[in-house]
Amino acid sequence: MSQAIAYIRVSTAKQGRSGLGMEAQQAAISHFAEAEGLEVVEVFTEIETGKGADALSKRPQLCAALEKARRRGCPVIVAKLDRLSRDVAFIAGLMAERVPFIVAELGKDADPFMLHIWAAMAEKERRMISDRTKAALAAAKARGVVLGGYRGGPAVDHQKGTQAAQKAAQGFAEDVGPLVQELASGGLSLRQVAARLTEQGIRTARGGKVWTAAGVSRVLARSS
């Protein structure tokens, strides 16, 4: 049975602590290796962002996986290409390491040329999403939408707390709803819309800094 090295990466410490992202990648790699008759002899796990041209220097576990694979003369398996990077230049740099990579999602026959193509497509999609987000923000600002979060609404008291909270939530949805609708209509999932709102520093209805897919869904429901 041929050997292989597995590499697993999550981008945030929160994902690393939860184990969910890592478990999904581990399962995908294990199923792929079993189906292809490969023995995973070692697993390297990393919690680090993939951003930046010098990302390899920030990933000691990836460097270690490359070195171990080079010594054993075997490939490195990842669950998805973005676990390596979405940056074409970074992928090209990895190919220069002369260590074969296998992306479980793409199959064993995806050669370096195909990996470059997939990386280029992912990079282009990321730029398009960024452009759509900026356009939606500009359009919302032009309409006078306040993007820093809803700060008005009546004070909540013990007797009318529920009504006041509902009124405040409705007012917030009316303010931010058009922006959220524009992002969603651009083909983004609820999770992607939440990520864009968080990146742009737009506060949630309760003044929080991090949006969730559920929060986006509630705004869409109230503003539709």
Your description of this structure?
By secondary structure, the protein is α/β, with parallel strands linked by helices. It has 2 domains: 2-110, 3-Layer(aba) Sandwich (Rossmann fold), CATH 3.40.50.1390; 165-221. It has helices at residues 13-18, 20-36, 60-72, 88-95, 112-142, 161-185, 190-199, 213-223, and strands at residues 2-10, 38-47, 76-78, 101-103. Helix 4 (88-95) links the parallel strand 3 (76-78) and strand 4 (101-103). Helix 4 (88-95) runs antiparallel to helix 5 and helix 5 packs across helix 6 (161-185).
Secondary structure topology:
Blueprint: E1 2-10, H1 13-18, H2 20-36, E2 38-47, H3 60-72, E3 76-78, H4 88-95, E4 101-103, H5 112-142, H6 161-185, H7 190-199, H8 213-223
Parallel strand pairs: 1-2, 1-3, 3-4
Helix pairs in contact: 4-5, 5-6, 6-8, 7-8
